[in-house]
UniProtKB/TrEMBL annotation:
The chain crosses the membrane at residues 110-132. Keywords: Membrane, Transmembrane, Transmembrane helix. The keyword Signal does not apply. This is FNDC9 protein. It comes from the Eukaryota. Residues 1-96 form the Fibronectin type-III domain. The gene is Fndc9_0. InterPro entries: FN3_dom, FN3_sf, Ig-like_fold. PANTHER family: FIBRONECTIN TYPE III DOMAIN-CONTAINING PROTEIN 9, FIBRONECTIN TYPE-III DOMAIN-CONTAINING PROTEIN.
Length: 221
């Protein structure tokens, strides 16, 4: 059985084979290996690096991901059998296709761009979260400081009010005491005039003036 390898490029090759009448398996095995050396290698299945399985209804297959400028051996046989020399072909891949190389570069650039974009988005999200967290923290600290300042001002105002009231009360008490010391009799007479009922009771003589105040019946309306 002879196989044909055609449409060879830097990365692909098409293999065509005739129907195998004696093959009772449901799959064909397409085996290939790079850098083939017939003097050192045998046709054993273990000697091949890669293997593809295709249904027996097919008679062609495109092998992909080959290495450019490389010598390959490709064999097609029944799934359970080792290949023979007439079931194999040796071929060389071509140089890398410029369009394929350009597409590869574009794919690589696109992959790098997508990866960079994802990383930038992650970094931007982390920075945004950090900024929002910092702003919220500062706002909370500012509100707490305002509350503390308001409470402190309220406490100072209340303390000043209490101190002023106490001082005013002390001043009035001192004025009253001074007045009593200077004019004790006048204060007693003023008290009697404002309260006539006091005249019903005898008034004791003043300790300083030694003057007697009229007793009951001497007050006039």
């Amino acid at each position: 059985m002879g196989i044909i390898v055609q449409n060879i490029t830097g990365n692909t090759a098409m293999v065509i084979w005739p129907k195998m009448a004696g093959c009772v398996d449901s799959f064909y095995s397409i085996m290939y290996h790079p850098n083939w050396n017939s003097m050192l290698s045998s046709y054993s299945r273990k000697s091949f690096q890669k293997e593809e399985r295709v249904p027996t209804t097919r008679s062609s297959f495109v092998v992909e991901n080959l290495i450019p400028l490389t010598t390959y051996i490709m064999c097609v046989t029944c799934q359970s059998a080792n290949p023979s020399s007439d079931q194999c072909r040796v071929f060389n891949t071509l140089e890398r296709d410029p369009a394929s190389a350009s597409n590869t570069k574009k794919e690589l650039a696109l992959g790098i761009w997508l990866t960079s974009s994802v990383l930038l988005l992650i970094i931007a999200a982390v920075l945004l979260y950090g900024c929002l967290h910092l702003l919220c923290r500062r706002r909370r600290e500012r509100l707490q400081e305002q509350n503390r300042t308001s409470k402190h001002k309220h406490r100072e105002s209340w303390t000043k009010s209490v101190a002023y009231a106490s001082e005013e009360f002390s001043r009035q008490s001192q004025q009253t005491q001074d007045a009593e010391e200077k004019h004790p009799g006048s204060i007693q007479l003023a008290t009697i005039i404002e309260n006539p009922t006091v005249c019903n009771e005898p008034i004791l003589p003043s300790s300083k003036g030694r003057e007697r105040v009229p007793t009951t019946g001497q007050c006039s309306a």
